[in-house]
Amino acid sequence: MTVRVGFLGSGNAFADGGRSHACIHITAPGVSLLLDCGGSALPAITRANAAPIDAIAISHLHGDHFGGIPYLVIQQHFSGRTRPLAIAGPRDLAARLRGAEQALYPDFFGRTRLGFEVTLTTLTAEDTPLGGALVSALPVRHAAESDPHGLRVRVGRTLIAYSGDATWSEHLPRVAQGADLFICEATNFSQDDPAHLSYRTLMAHRDELDCRRIVLTHLGSSTLAHLAELEIEHAIDGLELEI
Predict the structure, then answer these.
(1) Integer angstrom CA distances of residue 92 from 61, 83, 109, 137, 142
(2) Average pLDDT for residues 154-171, to the nearest whole number?
């Protein structure tokens, strides 16, 4: 089975380089799943003319990773969607999403009966059926208030791992273990910060990551300034891979 991975958004929270917020589309026969849906994701989804999205897996509760959901739900409603939409993520996703909806469009979300069902589920370390795939979530080190997790997505025999936002810790090798593709953030080029990983640190720990392939995403200005020096693949908005 061929699994396709489309990077609809590969930028950081500040959209450095004009990149869209985090949004990755995984498709295969019977599978259509977004990993994250950041605040600026809807234009990228629309431009890509993406296949109908059955589910969204959210890595953590920062706006550049889940803030696009209200816009997508409204757009899908007015497009005449009837098929269910499943959304899964951290424990407080439902409450945070309700808050975002009421802040952005209280008239719509307070009065409108959607033309399709939306279900909300908490992701755990156990595989959860989602969008035709099996998805699990493992804790990573980032801003604690965002309840950060790395995601592991199984499609048939293919395993895709995604760091979400994370600085280096013992958690990342567990997220990446056995993956055919590890999508890993590299916000910074040479200096880590308490919330984000640098490319240099990732390369220093490369041998600890038991995965076949790494693609960098969530690229900030310092990493973008050093693209020619990167020794592993990096995403751009619109990149599509086959696994």
Answers:
(1) 8, 25, 19, 14, 16
(2) 98
| Strands 133-139 and 128-130, bridge-based pairing | antiparallel
Question: Which tokens hold the place of 104?
Answer: 């952005």
Q: Which helix (H) or strand (E) holds 65?
A: helix 63-66
CA distance linking residue 42 with residue 181, whole number of Å: 25
Identify how many contiguous H helices and E strands the chain contains and give both numbers. Answer: 8, 14
pTM of the model: 0.97
Assigned token pair, 89: 């993520």
Residue 65 — very low, low, confident or very high, per pLDDT cuts 50/70/90?
very high
Rounded to an integer, what distance in angstroms lies between the CA atom of residue 219 and that of residue 237?
11
Residue range 8-25, pLDDT digits in tens: 999 999 999 999 999 999
- The DSSP code for 107 is H
Amino acid found at 152:
R
Decide: helix, strand or coil at residue 80: coil
